[in-house]
Structures are given as C-alpha cells and as structure tokens.
From TrEMBL, chain A:
It comes from the Bacteria. It comes from Alkalibaculum sporogenes. Its main location: membrane. This is Probable peptidoglycan glycosyltransferase FtsW. Its EC number is 2.4.99.28. The chain crosses the membrane at residues 12-35, 55-73, 82-100, 143-161, 167-184, 191-211, 276-296, 308-333, 339-363.
Amino acid sequence: MSKENQSKKVPSDFLLIFCILSLLCIGVIMVFSASIYTSAVKYNGDQYFLFKKQLLFAGVGLIVMMVVSKINYKIYHRYHKIILAISILLLIAVLFVGQELNGARRWFSLGGLSLQPSEIAKYGVVIFCAATLSSMKDQVRSFRKGLLPYLILIGVVSGLIYKQPNLSTALIIAVIVIGMVFVAGGNLGYIMGLGGGLVGAALYAMLFIGWRKDRVESFFDPSANITGSGWQARQSLLALGSGGIFGQGLGNGKQKMFYLPEPQNDFIFAHIGEELGLIGTLLILALFLLLIWRGLRISLYAPDTFSSLLSFGVVLMVGLQVLINVCVVTQIIPVTGIPLPFISAGGSSLLFLMGGMGILLNISKSTPINRR
Amino acid sequence: MSIYHLRRKKRLVFAFFVFFIFFIVMAIRLTYIQAFDSIKLTDEQIDQLMGEIPITATRGDIYDRNMNILAKDASASRIYVRPRDLENAEEVADYLSKILDLDRDILYEKISDTSQWIALVERKVDNDIAFEIRDQNFKGVEISEDKKRYYTNGNFASYILGFTGTDHQGLYGIESVFNNVLSGEDGVLVYEKDGKSQKVPSGYQVRIEPEDGDNLALTTDSVIQHFLESQVEKTVNDLDAKRVIAIAMDPKTGDILGMSSKPDYNLNDPRTISEIFETKLSDELKDKNLGEKQLAMWRNPAVTLNYEPGSTFKVVTASAVLEEGVVTPETPFFDKGYINIAGAQIKCHLYPRSHGAQTFVEGVQHSCNPVMVEAIQRLDPDEFYKYIYNFGFGDKTGIQLDGEQSGIVPANVEQNLINYVTKSFGQGISVTPIQLITALSAVVNDGKYMQPNIVKYILSSDSNEIIQEYKPHQIRQVISEDTASILQDTMEKVISESDVLSKIAEKYRVGGKTGTAQKVIDGKYAQGIYITSFFGFAPVEDPKVAVLFIIDEPKGYNVTGSNTAAPAALEFINSTLDYLDVPNNDKENFGDSSIVPDLRSQDMTLAQEVLGYLNLKYEVTSDIKEGYIVNQDPMPGQLIDKDTVIKLTLDKEAIDTSTELVSVPNIMDMTVQQANEVLRRLGLELTVTGAGGVSTKQSPLAGELVKKGTKVIVEFKPIE
C-alpha cells in the first residue's frame, strides 16, 4: 500500500490482456458465423446485423476497459455504500418499470441499449463485500460481524433478482458473497452451512417451481419435452457431437439454422464446438483457465486486502459464468440462461465485463514489481 | 505477513484449485461428447437435417376397349400451414375453411397448434383454388404439388371404376383391384431443412423421380356402357324400382361390355350420398350412420348382390336334365296348373289356368313350374348339383372386381323334397348377377363356360405398349353343343312367340329368358315384392352380346320379368347391335311399333323431348298447352304403331300424388285374393259381386283417376 508511486510505472498484465483480446476476437468471429443464417431471416435480410453490433460493442468495450484501468481502484472503497444502495434501488425499480420479456422483468431499455440492473448489482455486491471484509480482522470469523450482514445482503440482493425472476443470477450473487467471505478468512463452519443452505434452496426452486421444474425434468428425460428445454439441450449436444475433434469448419455449422436456440448467445459454445471441434472448445477453456489464473494471481499479489478481495470477486464472477454456461451446454446441469463471458453476443453485459477487466488491470498496475 | 494475509492467500490458491477441478471435469465431458459420442450424434444430426417431400407418382390411366379415357390423373395441390409463421390464425382459418370447405373449428385448432412446425391442411386441391390461396399471400401458408384423380363423367361406369382415397390409393372397383398396377412408385424430394422445417436455400437437394403407374384398358365399350346406363336409368324411373342392375357380356369371350347399377354415385364426389340413393334404398339405410351408408352405396350390386334368380334359372335346370338325358326336348308333360309335392302345392304362374299338354322345351319356354319340378325329380340330386357347380354357382367367378360374393347354394345333404324341387325354378338358391350372366352365356356359347373378364390389357405408362393381356379363357365345357343349341332355340322362342317381346325384338333374332321372383325379406317370401329379371342374347345365329337385367322391386301391379326387365333389355340389345353393325333381319317395315312411355306428371317440355327421341306423334287435347301432363291416351306400357297419336291432357300443375288420386288398375283375370291385394296396395277398396272364380268385369274401368279409398266393383265368374 505504501508503494503507490512505483505502481504507475508497472505495465499491465500482458497475459491477461492477451486472454481478453483472444476471447473477444473469437467472440466477434463466432457471433458472425452463428448469426449469419438467422439474422438474414430476423433482421430483414441483414445477415451482418449481429456481427456489426458485436464488433461495435467489442470496440467500445476495449475503450471502457482502458478508461476503467486508469481509475484508481480506491475510489470504489470510498463509495461502496452508495454503489450498493444504487444497485438495490435499481433492482427494485426494474421490478416495476422494467421491460417485460417472456414473463420476466430484467431489463431497462435506454434508447436501444438495454441495461440489466443485476449486472450493476454484481459489482455493487463485490465492491461492498471487498470494502467491508477488508476492514475486519478476526471479526470476520464471528457470526454477528462476519456472517449475519452477508446473509442479509444475499437475502436482499439475491431475493430481488430472484423476484425478476432470474434464479441463476441470484445464485451467482450468493456464491460470490460466500466466496468472498471465505477468501477473507470467514469461519469455515458457517460457510459450509451457508453453502449447504444455498444448495438446498436452489434444489427447492428447481424441483418444485413451475417452468424450472419442467427444465429439470427434461434434463433427466430429454425426450419428454421435445420442443422445449429438452430440445434445446439435445440440439446443443448434437452441435458439439457433430463437430467432432476438428470441427466442421468455420461457417459450416448446421445447428445454427434454427436448431440451436440463440446460437450466438447462450449456446454459442455449442456452436463453436460444431464448427471448430474439440480443439476449439478446449482452447477456449484453456484461455478462460489462464484468465482465471492471471486474475487470481493479481488478487494474490494485490497491494492491499481491499484490492485483493475486489479482484477476487471480479474473477469469481467471470469464472462462475463460464462454469455455468459450459455446464449447461454440455448438459452437466439443466438449461439456464447465462451467456459465455466475452464470446456471447451482448451489449451492456459485455461493457460491464470489460469494465471489470479494467478494474483488474488497474489493480495489477498498482502491484509492486517485486511482488509479481 | 499477518495471519490474515496468509490465510487469504491460502484460500485464493484453494479457489484456483477448485476452478481447475471444474475445468478438468468440463474438458472430460467435452472430450466424451465430441470424441466418443461424435459418430452417433452426427448421425442423429443428419437425420434431423433431412427433409422429405413425397412426390406422388402419376397413377395409370384407365381406358375402355377403344382407348377412350375413363379415369386420369391431373396435377393438383397440397396445402400446408406452418403454425408458428402464421400472423393471424383466425383469419387464415376463416379463409381456408371457406375456400376448401373444411370444418372451421377443427382447422383452426390444427393450424394454431404451435407445437407443430408444419400441418397438412388438405390434399388434392384443384390448382385454380390453390392459385387463389397463393394469391392471398398469407405468411405461413404453403402449397406443394399433388395429384388428383379425375373421372371423365362422374357417374359413368362408377361401379366398374371405383375411386381413390386421400393417399391416392385405389379404394373400390378397378382402382382397388388393380391398385398395384395403377399406383406406380412414389418418388421423394430429399432436401436440407432448418430447425423450422424450412428448406435451406443453399442446402443440398436430391430428387428421386416417381415411377408412374401402368395404364389399363378395360373390356368395356363406352358406347355400349352408355346404352346400358341410359336404359337402366330409364327403367328405374319408369318402374319406380328400388334398383336396377344390368350386365352386358360378350358371350364368346366372357368380356364384360358394360355393367351398371342405379342409383349409383359420383366418382368425382364419392363421399356424398345422392338424394335419390337415399330415398330409393331408405329401407336398407335407415338407422345407419354416414360411413355405413357410404359402404352400402359403394358396393357393386352386380357382383355382390345375392338374390333368388327365379325362372331365369330354369335354363340351368333344363341344361342338366337334357344333358343327362332324363328328358328329351320332345318328352311330353301335362300341366294342370299346379303340382303337389310332399303335401305342398306348387302352382304354375297361369294358375288357376294351366298350360295343359306340352313338350319339355315348351314347358321351359312357357316357364312352367310344374314341368320343371317333374323333370328335376327324374334327376339324381348329385347330378343336378354337379351342373349347379359347373355353371359356377356357389363360388366366385373371379372377375377382377372387388367384394364379389359367392351366392348361396345350400349344401346337397338329405333335404326335403320341396326344397330340392323348388331349385329347379330358381327358388331356395341365391346367385349373383355376374354368376348368372356368366352361366347363361355358357349356354349361349355352345356350352363353353368362359372366365368373365373386365380388363383387356395392362399397358406401359409411357408408350401404352401391351405389358399383359387377359385373353379369353375357357374354364370348362359345361354342356354339349347339342344341348346348348336346343336351349338357344328354346330361348329364341321365348321372344319370338311372345307378341309383345317379338315386336320389340323384330330387327334381330334374339333369345332370352324371363324371371320373376318374390323377394326374400327377413327369411320369408314377401307378398307382392318382386325381383324381376331378363337374360337375353343376340343375334341367335352368332351371339355378339348377352345381357342380364335385374329389377329390384318394380312398382305397379302384375309386374313380371317379361313386362319390366325384358323390354328394357331388348331395347338395349337393339341399340347395341345397331352400333355393332350386326346385319339385321330387314324387318324394318314392322319396326314401327313402340311402347307408350309414361308421361304423366311430367313437364311438357321434357315430354316433348322424350316423344321426340322415341319418334312418336302426339297432340295436346286440353285447352292448356303448357304445364304438366295429367292424363294420356293410350296409357303407358301399351304397344302402338308409330303412326298412333298420343293424346295428352295438360294442366298448370302436376298431379301431386299426395292429393290421393290414383289410377285404377286392370283387375281382369284375377282371383278375389289377387284383386284384393292389387287394389289394397293402391289404397282402393274391393267390392265383390258374382259367383267367385276369376274377375271378368270391373267398375270404374282401368286407367280412370279416382280418389283413394274409392270402391272398385269387380264381378267374378267361375272358369269354364
């Protein structure tokens, strides 16, 4: 913390930037090949529509990352309460004035750009946790200081997101909070109890509530729900399987022709598997693992506890999304709509993600050279 | 470094370790799917990508013997809907249900079911209707190629041809029996389809062409078929019969020249039951649902009707007894009007009069029951049954038509005598029309029983080259040429020695045999309900055509084969032989007689047409010159010279039968019982005068119009 002056001369983490840029490039190319068939139908014959959009957001995202990497991370510590408060207010607001889509209110529509309050909430929670946990020492092991406030945080934020409804994001938030308490040195007994409770709550929500129940049932018996989520999961496997080891070649995928749901979005990993094969999918997994490793390394050598916890939170957020997305696509878990970071077509979510990377880069620049 | 920092760092490393484990799991799972399961999943994907559209093969044409077209395929359309692409299912359902005449609610349910990518709405839609649908430019409504069967003339030869079902498969008649020949092999268009079942524009496409079905040429002659049908139609109307069935055959080859039964149905609209069919066959159709009624309508009576043939069967009996030598043509018989068998009395149709002394062939010619009964008793039943079976009764003839019945020949076990002897005049045995004409044609054909045949050739689809020919096939010689010749002479006399029939048949030498049988209804002989029939052939010296007319329940009093079926059959024979350019007997000077048609209740315009067609003169005697005919002179059924002027009385309105006016029948030469029966059927009452016996006088006179319930006074006198 005392070597701030030196940090300005430290170059950013090269490997991390390499991962981000590689994933972004793959994303733009694969969104192009995934959407070329459906865009021609959906957007009045403009088969480049989603490609152009993705290219634009990737460019803007890079600018966002560079800008954010210049912002000193300590500013987040100062405003952590306000940021959380705004997040919660937005989550409340979206329940009333959000765009309704398929019975869910998750979005604000801001002149062509859609904004998901849950994206902001993720950062709000990460920053709040990092700020509060970093100032505790042994108190983090106590129930009153180290557990109760975070239980309440999960209850409020995840509860609101669950209301939208968006179970998978609510779970991600809860896991982030628990993960941060864990890394901050929380009581293992409490954490394990909390984790157990979370698994129980998730199972309850999946097994006994309406459409989620259908998805879970179709997960175990895909033939029972041929046109719904069973169909989606099946099409995802067909895409991966028909790709084989070397893939059918870029642009040659068949599943993108209205077989895969959202081939440029939640199921883009299956689409990549079809066109680029096992080699392509393993390469992407390797890039993500490298990114997580570089991220955790920044957290490990961060200049202070706050920045360490903050960078861990960001990495955990990205890593969890990768895990859930790939597990859905490979039918390890039931279908749920989480995009693949950097690669799936997306607007505001990509910008937030790039912002998160900016924070990481800023922290890595602040890390003293002898510690890296 | 503080303990907290150390702990945090340890836990960060642990977190990475957890991530690492998860990534390994995902990598293993991916390897499993993409390396080990790849072939299976790729196969499944290929299956799913393949779209197939069947291309219906063009069904073979059906021709008559002169290659006139009878049935042909034409291009039509199939209408599909993609429920998920519809913008307004309500509107589309309204429009399609109206233009395609479908049930709107069922259609709406089908096209609004978005769990289906594609729904077939209707096949075999006429192209002009399909174009109209296409011009509406509904999104999600698609049209593809199909075939539809057209029959050149809806009702023409309907029982021969049959029709096809929704999948273009033959369902009845020739269409069904020769389905394998006609149907060909459907082709298929295999194409790459996307997840919405739409064809991928740049995708692969393989077309396997259909193999068209072969053509058929029938043995029927459309001109002869036309003569037959119009005569059948006329007979149904004239006699107000329930049904008339007729078959024309070339007796030397067994080829069917024509076959008709009316009322019938329209091949281009085979599922609609015509009103006339419904009324005529109301007895059989009541309490039946539409499906059962349709089945009844589609059944071809010419091969499916089992009926008691009556006197036409005497030719078979005579064949047997003559061939076996138990009688000779000249064997003398004496008919006293009846014969007692095992305590029962079998009457001659002349009873209470009689034929008196006659030879055997005269007995046959006069259709005398007692003679037949006597003759058959001289024959061993086993021998008689041999002839019954050799003439093809009790078994299917094997004609290439569907649903054929075998008739009913009760087993030759020890039966009581009465049941045996009645078979000699065609009672207690049931035959089908096709069995009877084939059997009697064998007599005409010098005793050679020919396989009845309705298909002449199978022709190749492209060039009409003969692939297979159905040649005339003699099955057996049933009786000797000599016996056959005796019976041909006898049958010729049936016509030539009848005043009425010989006049109709004067142009050619015609032979024939009439039949009048009481109908069996619910296992009993129904009083006053008859099946009359006539078998005829001509010319006797070199038979070109044999014909069987069967009239089911002709209305009127004293209906017999000779006053109902025979005139119709003879008219048909005349037209047919003219058409076949058979040299005639040059009796044209005597050819100027005709039977008076029934014009009563007819519209004057129609009557003029009919009279014009028959070349008859007429005059209107009433003041009213337009409207309906209420009376005519002479009355229908009378034989007149061509020069006779038919006087017609007209009125503005037709006599409605419900006004309860009936025409008094002729009740001469009847017993009290018979007269009572005839009058009661018309709703008239009988008042008996005289000493009993047969009727000699009546009042009012025959032909007068009286109200129902009027008393008719009849005087009866004993026969001298």
